Amino acid sequence: MSTKIKCIGLLTSGGDAPGMNAAIRAVTRAAIYNGMAVKGIYRGYKGLITNEIEDFKTQSVSNIIQRGGTILKTARCAEFQTPEGRKLAHDVILQHGINALIVIGGDGSLRGARDFAQEYDFPIIGLPGTIDNDLNGTDTTIGYDTALNTIMECVDKIRDTASSHERLFFVEVMGRDAGFLALNGAIASGAEAAIIPEISLKKDQLAEMIGMGFRKSKNSSIVLVAESEVTGGAMGVAERVKKQYPEFDVRVSILGHLQRGGSPTAQDRILSTRMGVAAVDALIEGQRNAMVGIQNEELTLVPFVKAIKKDKPINRDLLNVLRIVST
């Protein structure tokens, strides 16, 4: 084991995601197993600046693997985006004898980790905690599977009403810059279409969607819409349809933060646990400034600069799959 790292600081940052607690549990117990101390940092980078830190023991993470959210809490922190804020955070780290950080969060969280690591030559390992699944270098992220299952369950219920009243429902899901939830949620729930930011919505595409979704063999349709400025969100799309196709009875349902909550699925619990242990192993091996990802069921380390690269590509074959099965 590396003699340099004796104490790991652990925090969750940005939007919460189901499975974060499972990752906290895995990191804590893996570090203790390897003879390290663990410091839990509350409220993300904000807590790092305001010194909201406590010792974590094995019992600190008992009975949390099944819980959604994060016991470490999370918060946005504009101050950490400044050199002055990161200097305050570094002072607190030195005060507590923390030798390395493990950061669980999404794109913004890993950007903060990258900046801090570069400024202070400090070892940090990131875990991809976001329901949006928009980080490069990993097939899936912590919380994505649970959010996808939540969407599927909600759309199943909406379909009962859509069928009963012969309505066209636009269901808005999260994914401001990425359409993974909308596209795969549409396939999983048997929706007729998905409107995602990766593909601009033009009038002819809208016409094709309406034409395919309201064939004579169907008495209702459901379309998933990512909450993006590009798509206009479910409300924006619904307004366009009302104007261009007034014959349809249109309704909108916005799932919102329902998608963030709930007990994590088995897949998210297993993924989080594997990644948490791998993050500790990476620090022991001298790795730094990288995110733990998973590719083809194998864990891998992805440099921060690659992980936070914009525009993780969507699998466009899935668009064709959705088009075929919705006819």
Q: Could you walk me through the main structural features you see in this protein, from its secondary elements to its overall organization?
A:
The protein is α/β, with parallel strands linked by helices and 327 residues long. Helix content is 42%, strand content 18%. The chain contains 11 helices and 11 strands. The strands form 2 sheets. The protein has a 7-stranded mixed β-sheet with strand order 3-2-1-4-5-10-11, sandwiched between helices. It has a 4-stranded parallel β-sheet with strand order 7-8-6-9, with helices on both faces. Strand 4, helix 4 (107-120) and strand 5 form a beta-alpha-beta unit. It is elongated.
Summary tags:
seven-stranded mixed beta sheet; 11 helices; alpha/beta; 18% strand; 327 residues
Q: Helix amount, in percent?
A: 40-55%
- SSE string, helices as H and strands as E: EHEHEHEHEHEHEHEHEHEEHH
From the N-terminal CA to the C-terminal CA, the straight-line distance is 58 Å
Strand order of the largest sheet: 3-2-1-4-5-10-11
Count of DSSP helices?
11
Summarize the structure in short.
The chain has 327 residues and is of the alpha/beta class.
Give the topology, please.
Blueprint: E1 7-12, H1 20-33, E2 37-41, H2 44-50, E3 53-56, H3 83-96, E4 100-105, H4 107-120, E5 124-128, H5 144-165, E6 168-173, H6 180-189, E7 193-195, H7 203-213, E8 221-226, H8 233-244, E9 250-254, H9 266-284, E10 290-295, E11 298-303, H10 304-307, H11 317-325
